[in-house]
Design a protein that fits this description.
Blueprint lengths: L4 E5 L4 H13 L2 E8 L6 H12 L3 E6 L1 H6 L28 H15 L4 E3 L15 H15 L4 E3 L7 H11 L2 H7 L16 H16 L3
Parallel strand pairs: 1-2, 1-4, 2-3, 4-5
Helix pairs in contact: 1-6, 6-8
Length: about 220
């Protein structure tokens, strides 16, 4: 198994950027891959490109336009507003059906062509907003499926799986990239870089985690 190289599924948001620098500490060579699925806010791809260019990380953007046609929701359609609160029943309208499954599948195909076994993704069951494809059971399942499908030994790493947003900020601090995460990433569902719009669920989660982190660490 090649333990020198890793592929990071990279959106340009807080979680995947934290994972990118986590991977840089553990692997000799890191390649970031992002996906263009005609998402509402293309700025996240610009953030991803800028971060990789600034920190000398090899970066590819793969075309996933078909996902936009198949899964209309608030992250892919300008005429659908993001739910400000989680629905009492069902999934948030920001959930893109099959997104993480497709990203990991295409990421694995990409990795195998380069002889890479290790794939890193920023999913978390601790603050997963009800998204089923952020759960640990899903990651374990697709890891087995990809191994069987390609007769190849992939290892999917999920550094954030069991930590919340406060602990994710602490991890960024420990990695020495707190300012990068705070200023250069895009997590906001309304497409505003850095601190975001302050209104959407992603911004609420990010801000609460940051304030809790500062309080816990006397910063």
């Amino acid at each position: 198994m090649n333990k020198e190289k890793a592929v990071v599924i990279f959106s340009g948001g807080q979680d995947s950027t934290t994972c990118l620098f986590w991977a840089k500490k553990r692997f000799k060579e890191v390649i970031a891959i992002s996906f263009d699925y005609n998402q509402k806010h293309k700025l996240e791809l610009e953030c991803a490109k800028d971060i990789c260019k600034k920190h000398n990380i090899e970066h590819y953007i793969l075309d996933m336009a078909l996902l936009n046609q198949l899964a209309p929701n608030s992250l892919t359609r300008t005429d659908i507003e993001v739910d400000k609160e989680a629905p009492k029943e069902g999934l948030p309208n920001s959930f893109v059906d099959g997104r993480n499954m497709l990203f990991l599948t295409f990421g694995a195909i990409f990795a195998k062509q380069r002889g890479i076994n290790h794939i890193i993704t920023g999913v978390s069951q601790s603050d997963f907003s009800g998204y089923p494809d952020c759960r640990d059971v899903f990651i374990k399942s697709i890891n087995v499926t990809l191994n069987l499908a390609m007769d190849y030994q992939f290892v999917i790493h999920t550094p954030l799986m069991w930590i919340n947003k406060e602990e994710t900020w602490k991890l960024a601090y420990d990695l020495g990239v707190l300012d990068i995460i705070k200023e250069e990433t895009l997590t906001c569902y309304n497409g505003i870089k850095g601190n975001g719009c302050g209104e959407c669920p992603a911004c609420h989660l990010r801000k609460k985690g940051y304030l809790d982190f500062k309080k816990s660490n006397n910063l």
